[in-house]
Design brief:
Rossmann fold; 286 residues; alpha/beta; tt1808, chain A; elongated; 4-stranded parallel β-sheet
C-alpha cells in the first residue's frame, strides 16, 4: 500500500489493518486481553432548569484497553488515522491511563507506536517511538504494572484471581474495577485495615461482592462478615449480588453464629456487638 493510499484510510481501517494485528502479533489474546471502544466516563449531566440529561456526546472511549485478566487493565492504546502523526493520540491515551491508573499509554497512526512509560528507569526516556513490529507483550507490561502498583511477586496469584463471571458478560465498570483491584492489591501488600468510600448509585454492593469473592476464592480469608443497616438490605443482598455464594452464606439471626458457614450477613448495630468465634473475621460494611 502506498503512503498516499494509507492516508486515505479511516481510523477504523488503520486499527483493523495495522494496529490490532501488531498488538496480536506481540502475544496479546484478542478474545481475553484486548478490549476495544471501552467506555471510561458516562458523560456529564447537563442541567437545564428542572430537567437534566446526560450528554452522551461527551462520553470518553479508549480505543484499546489491554488487560492481564478480566478487570485488570495494564495499558491504553489510542488510534488515529494516518493523516495524524504517530504521537498525536498520546496525550489522549495518557488521560485514559490516568483514569485507569495504569503506567503505560500508547498511540499509533499505523506507521509505528508512541509510548509513555511511567516505570522507565532513571536515565531512560519516558516517551519513545518504535515500529509496529516491536509492541511490548503481556509479560513485559505486567512487569511494569506490578512495579508501578507495588505488587509483590509472591502475591501475584491473589491479584490475578479471576472475578466472578456468571456468563452474562456483566463486568465491573472501570471505576468499580479500580476500587476492587486497589483493595485486593493492598491486601496482597499486607494491609489489614482499609476504607473504601463510594458514592450512592455507584454499585457498592456489587463492588464489595467482587472483592469478597476474589479474596474467598484465593483462600485469603476464611470467614467474612458483611454488615448493613436494614433488614431489607440484607435480604436483597442475600438473593441478588451475593447469591453466587449459595450454601456457604447465611444471614445472622438472634446474634447466633453458625460456624459451618463462611459468609455472614447481618445488621451492624446488632451483629457488631455479637461475639463471632475465636477466629478473626474480615469485616466489610455497606
Amino acid at each position: 500500500m502506498s503512503p498516499k493510499e494509507k492516508k486515505e484510510l479511516s481510523e477504523s481501517d488503520i486499527k483493523a489493518k495495522f494496529i490490532t494485528p501488531a498488538i496480536v502479533s506481540a502475544g496479546w489474546d484478542e478474545m481475553t486481553q484486548i478490549r476495544r471502544e471501552v467506555t471510561l466516563t458516562p458523560g456529564p449531566v447537563v442541567v437545564r432548569g428542572n430537567l437534566s440529561s446526560r450528554n452522551k456526546k461527551k462520553k470518553k472511549f479508549a480505543d484499546y484497553v489491554l488487560q492481564k485478566e478480566k478487570g485488570v487493565p495494564m495499558a491504553v492504546v489510542e488510534a488515529k488515522d494516518n493523516s495524524h502523526t504517530i504521537s498525536d493520540g498520546l496525550q489522549q491515551a495518557l488521560g485514559y491511563a490516568e483514569l485507569l491508573d495504569v503506567p503505560c499509554a500508547f498511540s499509533s497512526n499505523g506507521d509505528g507506536f508512541a509510548s509513555h512509560d511511567k516505570t522507565a528507569p532513571d536515565g531512560q526516556d519516558i516517551e519513545i517511538q518504535f515500529g509496529m513490529d516491536v509492541f511490548p507483550g503481556p509479560d513485559e507490561l505486567w512487569r511494569r504494572y506490578k512495579a508501578y502498583r507495588g505488587i509483590p511477586d509472591a502475591q501475584e496469584a491473589l491479584v490475578t484471581e479471576p472475578y466472578f463471571d456468571d456468563g452474562s458478560k456483566k463486568e465491573p465498570r472501570y471505576y468499580q474495577a479500580e476500587a476492587i483491584n486497589r483493595v485486593i492489591e493492598k491486601v496482597a501488600q499486607g494491609e489489614k485495615r482499609l476504607l473504601l468510600v463510594m458514592a450512592t448509585g455507584t454499585g457498592k454492593t456489587y463492588t464489595t461482592f467482587q472483592i469478597i469473592y476474589r479474596l474467598w476464592k484465593a483462600k485469603k480469608v476464611k470467614r467474612i462478615l458483611f454488615l448493613v443497616d436494614r433488614n431489607i438490605l440484607a435480604d436483597q443482598t442475600l438473593v441478588n449480588d451475593f447469591k453466587p455464594f449459595g450454601s456457604v452464606m447465611t444471614k445472622i439471626r438472634n446474634r447466633k453464629i453458625d460456624p459451618s458457614y463462611e459468609i455472614y450477613l447481618g445488621l451492624y448495630h446488632v451483629e457488631s456487638r455479637a461475639k463471632l468465634s475465636q477466629a478473626s473475621h474480615p469485616k466489610l460494611s455497606h
